[in-house]
Amino acid sequence: MSIEAAIIISAAAFVVSLIQAIFNMRRANRSDAKSDGSQLTTVIVKLESISDDTREIKSDLRDVKSDLKDHSERLVKVEQQVKVLEKNVFRKED
Questions:
Q1: How far apart are CA 2 and CA 50, in angstroms?
Q2: Is the pLDDT score of 94 beyond 60?
Q3: What is the DSSP letter of 1?
C-alpha cells in the first residue's frame, strides 16, 4: 500500500508540475508578446525618423542641383562676356 501511495503522490506531483509549467509558458508568451510589441513600436518610430531624414536630404539635393544649374548658366554667360571683351580689347590694340 505504501508503494501505491508513493506512486499516486508522485503522479499527482507530476501533474501539478506539468500544469505549473504550462501556466508559466503562457505567461512567458504574453510577456514576450508585450515586449515584441514595444520593440516593434520602437523600430517603427526609428524608421519614420529615417524616412523624414531621407526626404530632407532629397530636398537638399534638389536645392544643390538647382544652384549648380544656376551657377553653370551664369558661368556660361560670364565666359561669353569675357570672349566679347577680349575681342574688343584686342581689336582696339590692333
A1: 70
A2: no
A3: -
- Say what the pLDDT of residue 29 is: 82
| pTM: predicted TM-score of the whole model, two decimal places | 0.52
SS3 state of residue 26 = helix
Burial 31-56 (b: 16+ CB within 10 A, else e): eeeeeeeeeeeeeeeeeeeeeeeeee
Alpha carbon 63 to its chain's center: 24
DSSP H or E stretch at residue 66: helix 2-93
pLDDT of 44: 93
pLDDT band of 55, cuts 50, 70, 90? very high
